[in-house]
Amino acid sequence: MSDPSGNRGIDATKGEVGIESRDEPSGPSPSLDVSDDGRGVSRRRPRLPEFDYLGHQAYHVTVVTHRRMPILSENLAESVCTRIVQSAAATNFDPLAYCVMPDHCHLLLQGCADDSSLLKFMKLFKQTTSFIAQRDFGHHLWQQSFHDRVLRKDDDALHVARYIIENPVAAGLTSDSSTWPHTGGTIVAQSQRIEWDGPEGSSLLFEP
Length: 208
What we know:
- With 208 residues, the protein is α+β, with helices and mostly antiparallel strands.
- The chain contains five helices and ten strands.
- A five-stranded antiparallel beta sheet has the order 8-5-7-6-9, sandwiched between helices. The chain has a three-stranded mixed beta sheet with strand order 1-2-10, with no helix packed on it.
- A hairpin with a 3-residue loop joins β6 (93-100) and β7 (104-111).
- α1 (74-90) packs antiparallel against α2 (118-137).
- The longest helix is centred in the middle third of the chain and has 20 residues, at 118-137.
């Protein structure tokens, strides 16, 4: 199981995830649809143009493989996990949780700085992983869009993280999420000290 270093945002004594919210958008939770050519972002279609996708926001992002082909396995899946962590570090994000499935991946990301940009993260992540997939495996990797949801104050980050980590179980790929090799994140790294189902473990801290 991938285990990035430099964990942040977790109070292990309380079992709480410290996710910050800055300039929370009004109305429905925004979603960002970004089209690309499989190598990087080339066209942006935001559903809420006034929302800049910058700063201390938390996102649940889903990325799907080209034609939903189940090509994310073994070495390629591990490379994707590595690039999630590296891209997050390069763009000032904390990868709270992620899971790479055969034909898609889920990410829970927390912006750590005012200039943390989801677009920059996705461009870097898709460029580097697409290059590796084409060079080493001859695959066109990603579908021409990704979906994201901005977490709000009333969202439960641990619930989202658990949904992400339990994806292989829900898909019938394993009976125990801890045996799935292509998961990770700062929440996962400390999951032994988090009460997933308890009243504290299911809570969410937002910092101003």
